[in-house]
Amino acid sequence: MRLRSGTACLLGLLALVVPAAARGQQASDTVPYALQYHAARRAAFAKEPVVPGRIIFLGNSITEFGDWAALLKDPTVLNRGIAGDITFGMLRRLDEVVQRRPAKLFLEAGVNDISLNVAPATIASRITAIVTGVRRHSPQTVVYVTSVLPTNDAARTEHPSLYGKNDRVEAVNALLQANAARDRYFFVDLHREVRDARGQLDRRYADADGLHLNAEGYRVWVALLRRRGFLPGPA
């Protein structure tokens, strides 16, 4: 398949920042699952008019399930979440995002990579590649990278491939926080806001599946962004 030049360039960035050994670690970690749904979402995105200067949320199902236009009271906000997406999938579709020259990009990624047993260093390197792609193709965009969220005990049944991996979540987050100054993004530590005393996703903010956020969880997320001055309005 012939790639568009922008996509090919972004994939080249991945090759530069991820060591060869890590790239070959697991074949499945380079292909988004739920491929038909992924393709349908991308096709819908491509039909939307390109208007520069908007706010974009890019991520997986945790991003997709947020009603960002309502939460921010801004109908121009774009939701670029795709359920089941992984960091490589986001890198592969980044051209559609950067062509819009967003004012702000909020990136949330990594939990599905963890479910596939991708190493924390590889996940962090791919997020660096995404940020580098944004810097290269839309240099005026301010980038915010959200921490990976923990799961709770309900994930044992609903998402067994993620159960018991909160230590890997914390390892990824430590790298994301450490890389923020070097990669010139703002780190959004939502993990700290929604975890309980055991380091699990607090049930007050969790959907019944132990992975996703409920309505209160999304309100906590937006309040954090406003408190940090990343979004206008009262926290």
Secondary-structure blueprint:
Elements: H1 5-17, H2 20-23, H3 35-46, E1 55-59, H4 61-64, H5 68-72, E2 78-81, H6 87-92, H7 94-98, E3 104-108, H8 111-115, H9 120-137, E4 142-146, H10 155-158, H11 166-183, E5 186-188, H12 190-194, H13 215-227
Parallel strand pairs: 1-2, 1-3, 3-4, 4-5
Helix pairs in contact: 1-9, 9-11
Structure description:
This protein has a single domain, classed as Rossmann fold, CATH 3.40.50.1110. The protein is globular. With 235 residues, it is an alpha/beta fold. It has helices at 5-17, 20-23, 35-46, 61-64, 68-72, 87-92, 94-98, 111-115, 120-137, 155-158, 166-183, 190-194, 215-227; strands spanning 55-59, 78-81, 104-108, 142-146, 186-188. The chain has 13 helices and five strands.
Question: Could you name the key traits of this structure?
Answer:
disordered N terminus; Rossmann fold; alpha/beta; 235 residues; 48% helix; five-stranded parallel beta sheet
Helix percent reads 40-55%
State the major sheet.
Answer: 5 strands, parallel
Overall mean pLDDT stands at 88
The CATH topology corresponds to Rossmann fold
How far the N terminus sits from the C terminus, by CA atoms, comes to 47 Å
Just give the CATH class.
Answer: Alpha Beta
**Count of runs of 4 or more consecutive helical residues:** 13
How many structural domains are formed by the residues?
A: 1
Q: Report the count of strand segments.
A: 5
What is the H/E order?
Answer: HHHEHHEHHEHHEHHEHH
Contiguous runs where pLDDT drops below 50 for at least 5 residues: 1-32
CA radius of gyration is 17 Å
SS-derived structural category: alpha/beta
Described by the principal axes of the CA atoms, the overall outline is globular
Strand order of the largest sheet: 2-1-3-4-5
- The appropriate CATH architecture is 3-Layer(aba) Sandwich
